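Example (one chain per record):
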Amino acid sequence: MKGGFFGLRGKQTSLILLALVCTTILVWAWEKTPLLTTLLPPQTHMQQLYPGAALESSWKPLTYEVNNISNSPEDKEVVNDQEEQAFSILDPLAPKKSSPGIWNSESNMITPSDKKGVTENFPKEESRDNRKPEEKRSLENAEDVTLVVAAPISSKNKSSALEGKEYKNLTSAGNQACNYAIGKWVEDDKLPLYSGFGCKQWLSPMWACRLTQRTDFAYEKFRWKPKNCKREKFTSSNFLRRMQDKTLAFIGDSLGRQQFQSLMCMITGGKERPDVVSVGWKYGLIKARGSLRPDGWAYWFPDTNTTILYYWSASLCDLEPLNITNRSTYYAMHLDRPARFLRRFLHKFDVLVLNTGHHWNRGKLKANRWVMHVGGVPNTDPKIAEIGGAKNLTIHSIVKWVDSQLPKHPGLKAFYRTISPRHFFNGDWNTGGSCDNTTPLSDGKEISSDESLDPVAVSAVKGTKVKILDITASSQLRDESHISRYSIKATSGVQDCLHWCLPGIPDMWNEILFAQL
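Predicted structure:
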């Protein structure tokens, strides 16, 4: 019994000693063998899963930056363009960019901003999301990249789960944001999206160049490819699905009417659609006695309960007859008051696209018998009396008013479209100016500058939730796409280098609009 007890103690002692030796060997091997260390997550991986204070201090938030603009009111129109807000990734190593020239340097001057890095634009869809700043990365494929990034975790909530989001309109090159104004024109044999012969239900014959004497149509075969943007292809079904139970309104001049007709042709494929109902009467868009046409049109697509309308308001101002009993009366042109149609029907709109520009000249104001008013009385300010000053005041006033209404209509998306460029060479429309070029992209195919070509528009939307539909710079490259001398009722010596052939450039405007809905 006693021997058995000491025998058992001896066996236990041996086992303990053996276990200590094995443990010592195992610990030594763990420290010396790299293969075993790979079984534990490295420190950098741990930091990605749990950033902590060190990561927070290394993050630089994305900040909004808008260029400082100085505008000189001139008696000329401005031809320019850009997105309203920019996400600027502050990078001290990024090269500074010089400000490019303005299309019409006599009309406007841009004061270069003190940029510390590359300034890019977020599309409408991104800016409406309450998203966190993304970590700067460097990947290889710069275009059409989908990034999934995690937001940093604050030190106050380190135990919370990661909040990952997909950012579809970001490029890998320094996380530059999608900018629809920057890109290039590329050939596309699948274009146009509709036929200039067939879209007779929606398209004015004077803009259907296929019905004119024109024989070259190479301009129809080019598509705008924005840099760093991944967007859904425009199709009728995609558009109508996105606009289910919604109303889209274009309000502006004849270029706005071109965009409206272009969209109607794109949605219908240029085909006859007897099921689409004219509902202009709901908006007072009825042809008045003695008028050539109504003040606009509205069409309803019953399958998706979608309405597309256009209202003619060349200046966006409220026009009030000074003597309602006189058919030849002058009109008070209220520079600081939006058009009555806009004030009356804004609550019915889900998407609003505004534009103005080419009626801001002395000849048009005189012909229309428009008298500038500010604050409800005739204008006496000489700076505002200049066309550039009046236009500047109006654009700022209208955009500010729309922005003030957005909280009342949280579902409304408002856009201000930049001015469509003219291409008169060797004169103006009434002095022998022409645009005879028929070679596409003869002056280049790419826009690489992120500087605005419409400083008035940029400054107007600064600090608002109204977005800019950026089309000027890309359209500037397409001088061969105007009506030119090809028109059904051509006038000798007069060319139309303002309006576009359809199908044509306004189709691109609508593709960019669709991408931001």
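Caption: Residues 34-174 have pLDDT under 50 and may be disordered.
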